[in-house]
Structures are given as structure tokens and as C-alpha cells.
Design goal:
With 185 residues, the chain is α/β, with parallel strands linked by helices. It has a domain of 120 residues: Rossmann fold (3-Layer(aba) Sandwich). The chain has 6 helices and 8 strands; from the N terminus they run αββααβαβββαββα. Strands 5-4-3-6-7-8 form a 6-stranded mixed sheet. A hairpin with a 5-residue loop joins strand 1 and strand 2. The longest helix has 15 residues. It is globular, with a radius of gyration of 16 Å. It starts with a helix and ends in a 13-residue tail after the last helix. Bound molecules: zinc ion (ZN). The site of zinc ion has 8 residues, from helix 6.
């Protein structure tokens, strides 16, 4: 997995502001995997194999990072695929997507850092009457315990440097801080 991330150039070096507000010298840009559909398919298959026994009938990912992933995992599992998206900062299920009452939902995302986005998706699923049966991400870069009590799977656990903004060696060296990706925190 790490090899694949390096091969497609998904591991960026620099000075990054993470959605958690912390700083890091490394950022995982999973969109680079899906630049190559054959790798996207592989990733989707690997996640599908890990979660199939939970028997989801819907796979949901938060936009943008989870859209293609949810579609690919759902394609492998033969389920429906949906995505949540932010509207004025609040995570929502839009576009006439509909979850049946009690339906088993798998949540997938590209990179899990604090689990904050996943928590928001869980809330959306429950508001729509669904039941979250499992959660999976491509890369788990969490440090602290994730804030949800649902079976969690990842294809790779990476321990990447994370710094508090007021104690960051890159800030000290005046390296310009970059806010990568599409996620609005
Ligand atoms: Zn910094």
C-alpha cells in the first residue's frame, strides 16, 4: 500500500495545515490513486473484501475524497453508492439519495486523521434512519483513539509527523504553510 502511494505520488512533502488544525511535514493526497483507475479498482476491491461480511447495502463517502472510493467499493460489493457533501459547512445527504429505515450502511473515506468527518457522516446516516455497520479508509493516520464505536478498517496505518501549530519545527524555519486538498475544516 505504501509502495502504491509513493508510486502514484500521493505522499506530499512540505508544510501542511491539516483539517484538525495541526501541522505536518507530510500530506496524503489520495486523489492521486484515482488518477489511475486500475489502482482505484484495486483499492476498492481491497476495502470491499475487508467489509463484505458486514453485509452493507449502501456505501457512502464524504465528498470529495470519498465519492469515487464509495462508488468503487459499492461496485465491487454490488451495493448502492452515495456521497454526503457540505452545505454551508454542514454535512448533508442531498441529490435525492435515500436510505431505507434500518438499512446497513458502510462509510468509506480516503484518509482518516481525527475521524471528525466520519462522525458527521454517521450522524447524517442515522438522521436518515440508516444503521452504520462499518467504516473503512484507505489510510489511517490517526494518532488518538477514533471517536466512533463502529468496526473500523484501513488498508494502511501511517504514522506521519504531526505538530501543534505553536510547537512546529517547520513554522520555526518559516516554511510557507499550505492548506492542501479540498476539505473545508
Ligand atoms: Zn507549522
Amino acid at each position: 500500500m505504501l509502495e502504491l502511494l509513493l508510486k502514484v505520488g500521493a505522499i506530499l512533502e512540505g508544510h501542511f495545515l491539516l483539517s484538525s488544525g495541526k501541522h505536518s511535514s507530510k500530506y496524503i493526497q489520495c486523489a492521486k490513486i484515482f488518477e489511475y483507475p486500475e489502482y482505484g479498482e484495486k483499492i476498492g476491491k481491497a476495502i470491499a473484501e475487508k467489509i463484505a461480511h458486514h453485509k452493507p447495502t449502501v456505501v457512502i463517502g464524504p465528498a470529495l475524497g470519498g465519492v469515487i472510493l464509495a462508488y468503487e467499493v459499492a461496485r465491487q460489493l454490488g451495493t448502492r453508492a452515495m456521497f454526503t457533501e457540505r452545505e454551508n459547512g454542514t454535512m448533508k445527504l442531498r441529490r435525492e439519495f435515500h436510505i431505507e429505515t434500518g438499512e446497513r450502511v458502510a462509510i468509506v473515506e480516503d484518509v482518516t486523521t481525527t475521524g471528525k468527518s466520519v462522525l458527521e457522516v454517521i450522524q447524517v446516516v442515522e438522521e436518515h434512519g440508516g444503521k452504520v455497520c462499518c467504516i473503512a479508509s484507505i489510510v489511517d493516520r490517526s494518532i488518538e483513539k477514533l471517536p466512533f464505536d463502529v468496526s473500523f478498517y484501513s488498508l494502511a496505518k501511517l504514522q506521519l509527523p504531526i505538530y501543534e501549530p505553536d510547537n512546529c519545527p517547520l513554522c520555526e524555519r518559516n516554511v510557507p504553510l499550505v492548506k492542501p486538498g479540498s476539505r473545508k475544516s
